[in-house]
Design brief:
Oligomer: single chain
Shape: extended
Number of strands: 6
């Protein structure tokens, strides 16, 4: 259906290096997490300019929020697109998201990848700190 996001709870797992500093043991932690069914976004964007690169950021914002001036927001995706003059239809599957839907590496896995040199620059960029929403809010005009 249009404009619906179906959520579910599933189980995640992370590896944590020994909590006892004198130990080399690794602890496996399982936890419940909020997840979602696969979805696809279709966005219509009109551009007055030809061949423009743009950054798209998608936010999930509840209809009702405690502070309307600073609504609660969850970033669902961010990516670059090339826009042509006129109307552009952007389609994006949830599985393509750089923010949601992917299992994140644990700190231990990240440390091992960094130590062995088995991590790319784009993989490192996924650990960029995300403030949540742009300073002027999600409806910012460019």
């Amino acid at each position: 259906k249009k404009n619906e996001l179906h959520t579910l709870t599933d189980q995640g797992e992370i590896l944590v290096p020994g909590l006892d500093f004198g130990s080399n043991r690794t602890l496996r932690v399982r936890y419940n997490r909020l997840n979602h069914q696969p979805f696809q976004l279709s966005i219509l964007v009109s551009s007055k300019l030809a061949r423009v690169r743009a950054k798209v950021r998608i936010f999930l914002i509840p209809k009702e929020t405690p502070d309307q001036a600073a609504p609660l927001a969850v970033e669902m995706d961010r990516f670059l697109v090339s826009l042509n003059k006129g109307n552009n239809v952007i389609r994006r599957k949830s599985s393509q998201s750089t923010v949601s839907g992917k299992r994140q590496r644990s700190l231990l896995e990240l440390q091992e990848a960094l130590s062995s040199g088995n991590i790319t620059e784009s993989e490192l960029s996924q650990f960029e700190a995300v403030a949540g929403r742009p300073p002027s809010g999600p409806k910012r005009k460019f």
